[in-house]
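Colleagues,

Please find the record for the two-part complex below.
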Amino acid sequence: MAKDRSDVLQGTLDLLVLRALQLEPMHGWGITERIEQWSESVLQLGQGTLYPALYRLERQGFIRSDWRVTANNRRARYYSLTSLGRRHLNQELAEWRRMSRAINLVLEATLG
Amino acid sequence: MRRVIEGWRRLRAFRRRTELETGLDEEIRFHIDRQTEKNLRAGMSADEARRQALIRFGGVDHTKERARDQFRAASIEDLVRDIRHGGRALLRAPGFTIVAMLTLALGIGATTAMFSIVNGILLRPLPYPEQDRLVELVHEAPGLGVSRILASPAVYFGYRDHSRTFEAVGMWDWDASPVTVTGLSEPESVRSVELTHEVLGILGAAPAIGRSFVASDDVPGAASTAVISHAYWQRRFGGASPIGRTVVVDGVAREVIGVLPEWFRFFDYPADIFYPMQLVRSEAGFPRGDGRGLARLKPGVTVEQANADARRMIPLINAEFGRPGPEFDRMRFAPNLRPLKEMVVGNLDDTLWLLMGTIGLLLLIACANVANLVLVRTQSRRSELSVRTALGARWGDIARVVLAENAILGLAGGVLGVAIAYVSLPYLHALGGDDLPYIMTVRIDLAALLAALAMSAFATVIVAFIPVVRFARPQTELAGSLQGGARGIADGHEGHHARRMLLVAQVALALVLLVGCGLMIRTFVILRQVDPGFQDPSHVQTFQLTLPVGPGGPQAEPEAVIRMLHRIADRLAAVPGVQSAAFTSANDGLPLDGDGRSAGIFVDGKVVGDSLQRPKEIQFASPGFFETMMTPLVAGRTFEWNDVYQRRSVALVSENFARAEWGSAAAAIGRRIGPGPTGPWLEIVGVVKDVRHNGLNAPAPETVILPPVARATATFVVRSSRAGTSALLDELRRAVWSVNGDLSPAIVQTLGEMYDRSMARTSMSLRLLAITGLLALVLGLVGVYGLVSYAVAQRQREIGIRLALGAGYGEVRRMFVRHALGLVTVGVGIGLVAALVLTRLMESQLFGISPLDPATHLAVALLLVVAAGLASYVAARRASALDPVEVLRGV
């Protein structure tokens, strides 16, 4: 297995997946594409981690899945946020912003 | 099937998860397709695009596994999944599945059925309360060479009065059975038991109605009473209270005082009337053996302690009833009390355990066969398993899948096996015939089901062991097989090795079973050749008659009794188609059944010194008895009616007695024998051929034959080519009634039936061993055939090359046959060694042949090698069908 260009920090994968689903329901492939796109190809998800994460999130009740037909007529499983997931995402986002700000502060202070 | 499973899962609210499971495959495929398209757009070639997509994705199996992990609460779901997976894999190979399942079912079914019999008869207790405290009172006298002496009134009185370890002692006998019951309706012959008042209490049979016997019933001269069985009450009184009613038993009016509970069976004897044995203390002698004794031990007393207590009492008993002195001491009379269960089961345990072991071996062979099949199958799935491993399946996963698949096989085989056991148990039980005690119920109970489950688990482990060890290992070791697997001829040395070992084991086990079978066949043949001392037994009809006699018993008017029996014999002989008819006094005069009486016999002119006489068999035969039995007369003459009516002091002896005492049959004529050292003497007028009284496999006892005596019961023998037909029986019955309308024939059987019964044990062992031996042979040959045909299939290329290089078909065939025979020979060698050890266990079942009989062992070994050679030749002929050109081009 090729090493991911950037291993997603443990614990942030769930956040990225939920964020990717914030706008619209998507299938697994779409989620990897969106994250790759948004991160300017820095974050390439290993599928060995993506699907387990999706299943985990679904079990926790943050997302749900249903089968839909894609634009070119193939069946695919689409994942979408539940209201619980939306709340969870907002909480996590707030927490992330608080943490990253704190980390940035520390890093910049050291450099400065 | 699938719909049922699906519906079941729906019911169990598994639906969502199932959907996820099946969806996962599709989802991953979708993902990889998208990635491939993206790679194509980036300008890769089609192959490269897909390859990169797969690389990018990582281990598919691993991903699936991890995704599923997110949804699994417990390992029970692993199990469910593995079982479904295994089930599907088995359904894809129906031929393999059916053969493997049936083989296992056969092994497990046969073993379960046999176990039910062993469990029912040997392991389960007697159906009496606290039966472990019941003992049979038997004794031995090694000084006389007698190992089994029954109880006697003296022993009963002695143990009753002096014991410290017995709670109760009782005595019973069925000598008078069957009795003739009159006074209720038609005269009827009813099986009866005479017993002291303790016996029913010892067996825990509290009466359902009325009372049981008490001590006062046993006092000679007390009012005559009887207790009847529940079945007889229903049959004769139809539910009306029988208490206080009178039944006339052999001419004695008895008051019915109680009815036994419905569950109660008097051992294996279907007795309906029980009445007190009124023993007279002053008439008791010691040592004697004429009755059955039993006792209930005090709680906590062991059989050893009871024996020690009895040993202490023997001198006390001898002091009161016997003649103390050096002669008694030389007998070394000693108690040999044994658990009552042993009396019922007898020496059946040897036979049954032997058969159980035999069938267990069959199960092992079946397992080896299936293990071989599974190994071949797993071998052919090797590339599939390698791919799974390469795709990230952990070795534990594969081990689980293989194990689950075999567990399904094992369990299905077990379930089917239990069904087979249910169906076959009645037949198996019937094979034993009268030899198996009916008092012990045989059925498939919880213990048998648990045993079947254990066998299924055992079979699973045996069958799955090699594949699991071989294929479920870290992927590095399997890396090589992936390339080989692509060609579908991945068969390492190890695979060959394991299958060879299985074949050797199979052949060895089959050899052991077949040797056992061969020894049993020899025993059967030898027994059939034994001269029983009479001829053409199937044309001899026998039955018993019990005369209703007045007070004072038959001895009161002996001549009248004999005259009536004589008249009956004459009438029977006059029935059309009857050649001759005769009788013996009492109910135990017929051969082969081991039932008889014996007494010490003294020879006139021979001083009894230190050597103690072995008791002689005593028989009372009417004139014409030996002619009817077709027992040859060796010297002198047989009885005539004048001997009887003129009360001549004459006797006949058996040939072996005559030879032992006087050297030859002719020398015995005119000699005198008697019941005591001083007579009264009887003159020997004839010598007859030895008759096997104690069964075909026991030596004929030295026998003394006396003229008939006046006994209430007599056993008639009638020679007719129509013996056994109901038409003849009707005519015989009418002949009896023409003399006395109150008589009814009982225990009606032909001598041929008695002959068969005396071979029952051997027949049962023989048939079971023959069946298992045959199955073992078939399974073994299937194993040989399978191994060779698989080898041919695996080595097609090699065969093709050999043929192309000029080898003949015959040469190629010989190569395979030689290889198979090499293995078979090793198996036969190991089997012969095992047989030398194991056949000793069946020594007690054999007659006239040593368990090590070299002819049998070698003949069976030869048979097996020849049969295996044939099987491998037939399999190797498939090699002849190969066209070298096609083979080399095709692979």
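Chain A is about 55% helix and 15% strand.

Comments are welcome before we finalize the supplementary table.
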